[in-house]
Design brief:
CATH topology of the largest domain: Lipocalin
CATH class of the largest domain: Mainly Beta
Structural class: alpha+beta
Pfam families: HTH_3 (PF01381)
Helix content: 25-40%
Number of strands: 11
Radius of gyration: 19 Å
Distance between the termini: 38 Å
InterPro entries: Cro/C1-type_HTH, Lambda_DNA-bd_dom_sf
Order of helices and strands: HHHHHHEEHEEEEEEEEHEH
Strand order of the largest sheet: 3-4-5-6-7-8-9-10
Low-confidence stretches: 1-6, 79-87
Number of helices: 9
Oligomer: single chain
GO molecular function: DNA binding
Protein name: Transcriptional regulator
Shape: globular
Strand content: 25-35%
Largest sheet: 8 strands, antiparallel, barrel
Length: 267
């Protein structure tokens, strides 16, 4: 599916927020032709993003951010900073200064990500996850569908960053649609499981009072390239019987490992 058709699905709020931030950055830096050239975009396509008609894919947004000389968080209007004394340090700078160069723990591409939904429960959240490498760590994108109380289906999208250090992959993420949830994951490669990843997920939900949840998660590698739309339609809150058997075999193995060796998959 083309990027144009993919990204007309964003809400009016998201498109307005993105185009406002993009317009502000372009006004500061100017030279649209130069920005388009460095981002590998034609002027017509870029104007659609400026007008709010479309929002770019994650990969295209990264190219635009690089052409503008800003972080992806800044382009999305979500600059994340840490208070220091006496300065604020951007999260991207923290990654670049403290994380190790990639060591190959993460195979770039798409994964099925499965996590138990509630506990105890025979329901699971099945997501389509994409790891996009950079020199140090990379970008994390996760998509799954969710059902409202009235039965309508809405997309859930999470953007974040990951880095590799001391044999572990750490991910920081936030819900870019609802904006009341952020989380982190500590992942490890499993012996004998190829590119599969497993670990613990921690979520922080800021609604009706702050709430923190933890759960075991497993990620099964699909491939470097997949057709995103048909696979996204398979995501959501699922019964065990609705999830492909090989994914549940991996999850059960990870769960058994976490119970047999407490702490191995934890932060």
């Amino acid at each position: 599916m083309s990027e144009e058709s993919q990204n007309k699905s964003g809400s009016a709020f998201e498109r307005d927020l993105f185009c406002a931030q993009l317009g502000e950055l372009v006004e500061k830096r100017g030279a649209i032709a130069h920005i388009c050239k460095n981002a590998g975009l034609n002027r017509q396509q870029f104007n659609r993003y400026l007008s709010g008609e479309n929002i770019p894919s994650l990969a295209t947004a990264y190219r635009i951010a690089s052409a503008l000389g800003v972080s992806l968080d800044s382009l999305a209007g979500q600059a994340v900073t840490r208070e220091t004394d006496p300065e604020k340090m951007p999260l991207d700078q923290l990654f670049n200064e403290n994380a190790s160069p990639n060591t190959g723990l993460v195979e770039p591409g798409f994964y099925w990500e499965v996590t138990r939904y509630g506990d105890p429960s025979d329901q699971f959240v099945l997501s389509l996850t994409h790891f996009i490498p950079q020199k140090t760590g990379g970008l994390y994108y996760r998509y799954n569908q969710a059902a409202r109380a009235d039965g309508t289906i809405v997309p859930q999208e999470f953007w974040g960053r990951y880095y590799e250090a001391e044999g572990k992959v750490t991910v920081f993420q936030t819900n870019i649609r609802v904006r009341n949830t952020m989380g982190s994951m500590a992942l490890r490669r499993l012996d004998g499981y190829g590119a599969e990843l497993a670990g613990q997920k921690m979520g922080h939900r800021f609604i009706s009072g702050a709430r923190v949840t933890t759960s075991i998660t497993a990620l099964k590698f699909i491939g470097r390239q997949v057709e995103q739309e048909p696979n996204q339609l398979l995501t959501g809150i699922k019964l065990r019987s609705e999830i492909p058997a090989d994914i549940m075999v991996l999850y059960d193995s990870v769960l058994a490992l976490s119970e047999a060796e407490p702490g191995r998959l934890h932060f």
